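Need a sequence for this fold. Nothing fancy.
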C-alpha cells in the first residue's frame, strides 16, 4: 500500500486518504474499505466492481483507478489524486456558483458521462456537488462510482432494491421508484438538480425530510421555484435547460448527453429555446412565464 499521509474523505463504509506512491513517484488517493466490511463477500465484490469501472473508463473527466489489493486484513484501491476542491466546498464558501461556471460543469460532466454511457453502459447514480471536483489546471473531475449501475437492457419486471440508492436532494424519480432499469436519463436529472443547487445556493426541495424530498421528485404537482427567484441574473436559456433536464417522466426528459452539451453551447451563444410542451409530463422546476 502507498504511504498514507492524511485522511481526505470518509463515508459509511470506507475512508479516502491522500498517499504517496513511491514506486511511481506521485501522489495518489487510497480508498480503504472499513474493516467491518472487509470480510463481507457482497461488500468486497461491490467495492471491487467500483474500482474496475473506474479503471476501465479512461476519460480525463472521471477519476481513474490504478490498483486493487488487501493489506493487514483491509481491502483498498489506489486511484488518481485530484489536487483541487469539490464544488460543494466552493458552494460553502461562496453561496452560489456563476452561470458560466455552471455551464462549464454541465459540459464537462456531460462529456465524461456520455463517454461512460456510450462505451461502457455506465450510469453514475449519485451526481451531486460533493462528487464533482476541479483540479488546479481547471479540469472538472467526476468521482465516486460506489453505487453506479452498468446498463444491461433487462426486459420485463425489475427487482426492486431493499432501499433507495442515491442522495435525496438530487435523486431521479425512477431511482426512487426502483421499478425500471436506470439509464443515462437518470444522471441527466441528477445533474440538473445539482446545477440548480450550485446556481441558486438552494436545493430543489428545501426544508423537508428526506422521505418528503423523494416524494417531491416524483409528484407531478410539486415543483421548485424558478431559479431566477433567487438569482435574477440567470439567463432564460439556462433556466430552460434545467427545466428540460428535470422532467419527472424520463420518457419526455432530454434523452442524451450530446443534447445536453449542445444546449449548453447554445446558451453560451446567447440563445434561448422555444417553449417546451409540458402537457405530457411535468418538470421538477416551474419557470415563470
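Here you go.
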Amino acid at each position: 500500500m502507498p504511504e498514507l499521509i492524511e485522511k481526505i474523505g470518509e463515508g459509511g463504509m470506507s475512508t479516502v486518504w491522500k498517499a504517496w506512491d513511491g514506486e511511481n513517484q506521485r501522489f495518489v488517493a487510497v480508498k480503504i474499505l472499513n474493516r467491518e466490511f472487509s470480510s463481507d463477500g457482497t461488500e468486497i465484490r461491490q467495492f471491487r466492481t467500483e474500482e474496475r469501472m473506474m479503471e476501465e473508463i479512461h476519460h480525463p473527466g472521471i477519476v481513474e483507478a490504478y490498483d486493487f489489493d488487501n493489506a493487514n486484513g483491509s481491502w483498498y484501491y489506489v486511484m488518481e489524486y485530484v489536487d483541487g476542491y469539490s464544488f460543494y466546498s466552493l458552494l460553502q464558501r461562496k453561496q452560489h456558483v456563476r452561470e458560466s461556471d455552471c455551464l462549464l460543469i454541465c459540459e464537462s460532466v456531460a462529456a465524461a458521462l456520455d463517454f461512460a454511457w456510450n462505451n461502457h453502459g455506465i450510469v453514475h447514480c449519485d451526481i451531486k456537488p460533493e462528487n464533482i471536483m476541479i483540479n488546479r489546471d481547471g479540469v472538472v473531475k467526476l468521482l465516486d462510482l460506489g453505487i453506479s449501475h452498468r446498463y444491461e437492457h433487462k426486459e420485463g419486471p425489475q427487482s426492486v432494491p431493499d432501499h433507495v440508492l442515491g442522495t435525496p436532494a438530487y435523486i431521479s424519480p425512477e431511482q426512487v421508484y426502483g421499478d425500471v432499469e436506470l439509464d443515462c436519463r437518470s444522471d441527466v436529472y441528477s445533474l440538473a438538480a445539482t446545477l440548480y443547487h450550485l446556481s441558486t445556493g438552494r436545493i430543489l426541495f428545501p426544508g423537508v425530510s428526506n422521505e418528503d424530498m423523494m416524494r417531491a421528485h416524483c409528484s407531478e404537482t410539486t415543483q421548485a421555484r424558478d431559479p431566477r427567484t433567487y438569482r435574477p441574473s440567470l439567463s432564460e436559456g439556462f433556466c430552460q435547460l434545467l427545466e428540460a433536464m428535470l422532467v419527472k417522466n424520463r420518457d419526455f426528459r432530454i434523452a442524451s448527453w450530446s443534447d445536453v452539451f449542445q444546449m449548453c453551447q447554445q446558451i453560451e451563444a446567447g440563445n434561448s429555446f422555444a417553449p417546451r410542451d409540458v402537457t405530457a409530463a411535468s418538470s421538477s422546476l416551474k419557470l415563470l412565464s
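For context: The radius of gyration is 19 Å.
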